[in-house]
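Students often ask why inverse folding is considered easier than folding. One informal answer: many sequences map to the same fold, so there is more than one right answer. In these notes we will look at a single instance of the problem. The structure comes first.
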């Protein structure tokens, strides 16, 4: 009996060694293709985790792995191991690459990873505030204290641009003085991927900006090029400072709702799309490379959609 058990253990050890050998051969080829050492190490960790899963499921060869096994592995990593979605997505990518390699090596005949993907929960729609609440924020009177009043002049210019031109907070703080076109009331924005776009500045935002710029000249140090700077330091503001200043001004305006920079950008997009219906124009103004990213805002204003339907469709409930 002991002889048979030892023989079975030896056979399993040989099979496991063959499994590992395929993985090591694949990783060696990736290394020869000049994959970064960090990537190779990451891939190796993924394969070790999956090999452990195969061992638990008593899968002795790569040919035994099927789609159901892969789905079970994803569920384990997501639900049991509580791995972050982005990490599970990475593991799926690595496994799909490995199984494609096994096909090319004629180790397996059927690729179980074809069409395998991680199902993400549906994107939550941005929470918006209406135009009246934003007017309450933007049109509030300045503070009585002179130091607070100066900061409000700067903060108002920032708020007007975030909502009036749909800037990301990173775009706002990276805005330089030479990016302002005073002749045509335009801003040159450097967005994600170092892509530039030109956006218009509304009348009220332009007034707020012009009101602030003389203070900037007094505050700046070392000829700093940033448009928005700290009164105390004379240097470019940080994202955290902008976030804090929005909360300060919202609290001063008596607004209980949590306001943050990206919410103002969401409101810009939704209110503009609601008023114009021009999805492509909103896409350009936001700096989205793909219109699918912009389409989320088409779901935000059901009241506007209902009005369009009621006014335009011959079978709407408002038609007599």
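Output (designed amino acids):
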């Amino acid at each position: 009996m002991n002889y048979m058990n030892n023989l079975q253990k030896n056979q399993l050890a040989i099979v496991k060694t063959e499994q590992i050998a395929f993985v090591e051969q694949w990783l060696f080829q990736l290394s020869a293709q000049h994959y970064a050492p960090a990537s190779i190490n990451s891939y190796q960790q993924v394969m070790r985790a999956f090999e452990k899963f195969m061992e638990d499921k008593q899968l002795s060869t790569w040919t035994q792995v099927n789609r159901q096994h892969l789905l079970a592995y994803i569920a384990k990593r997501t639900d049991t191991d509580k791995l972050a979605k982005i990490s599970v997505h990475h593991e799926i990518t690595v496994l799909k690459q490995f199984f494609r390699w096994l096909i090319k090596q004629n180790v397996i005949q059927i690729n179980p990873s074809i069409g395998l993907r991680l199902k993400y929960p549906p994107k939550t729609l941005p929470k918006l505030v209406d135009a009246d609440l934003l007017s309450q924020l933007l049109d509030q009177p300045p503070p009585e204290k002179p130091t607070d009043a100066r900061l409000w002049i700067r903060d108002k210019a920032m708020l007007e641009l975030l909502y009036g031109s749909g800037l990301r907070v990173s775009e706002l703080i990276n805005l330089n003085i030479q990016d302002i076109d005073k002749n045509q009331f335009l801003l040159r924005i450097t967005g994600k991927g170092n892509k530039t776009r030109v956006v218009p500045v509304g009348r009220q935002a332009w007034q707020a900006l012009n009101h602030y710029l003389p203070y900037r000249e007094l505050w700046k140090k070392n000829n700093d090029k940033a448009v928005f700077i700290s009164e105390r330091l004379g240097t470019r503001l940080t994202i955290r400072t902008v976030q804090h200043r929005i909360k300060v001004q919202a609290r001063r305006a008596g607004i209980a709702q949590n306001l943050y920079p990206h919410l103002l950008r969401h409101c810009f997009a939704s209110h503009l799309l609601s008023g114009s219906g021009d999805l492509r124009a909103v896409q350009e103004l936001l700096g989205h490379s793909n219109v699918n990213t912009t389409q989320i805002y088409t779901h935000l204003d059901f009241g506007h959609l209902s009005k369009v339907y009621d006014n335009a469709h011959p079978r709407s409930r408002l038609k007599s």
